[in-house]
Amino acid sequence: MRRWGDRKDGTLVRDADAMHFIMPIIYPNRCDNEAFISERMDLTNINAYLEKKNQDHPEYKYNLFQVLVTALLKTVTLRPKMNRFIANQNLYQRNHISAAFVVKKIFSDDGEEGLAFIHSKPTDTIESIHAELYRQVSYCKNQDNRDSSSEAMNIFNKMPRFLGKAVVRFCCMLDRHGKVPAPLIQTDPAYASVFLTNLGSIKLRSGYHHLTNWGTTSLFIVVGEKKSRPFYEPDGSFTMRDSVELGLTVDERIADGYYFSKTIRLLKKLIENPELLERPLCEEVEY
Question: How far is 90 from 85, CA to CA, in rounded Å?
Answer without folding.
Answer: 8
